[in-house]
Prior knowledge:
The chain is mainly alpha-helical.
Amino acid sequence: MLSWAIFFLVVALVAAILGFGGIAGTAIGIAKIIFVVAIILFLISGVMHMMRRT
């Protein structure tokens, strides 16, 4: 999932450089959402792993 977030971040940066503000804003919004979801899933995975060990 982090690769998708990085992809959308790169798309946003390229769009911003080329002057496509709407596309850049949408892409950065999607990148933020995917990044947050990836972090939440990582934390849930870590908690589940710690619970399974004990």
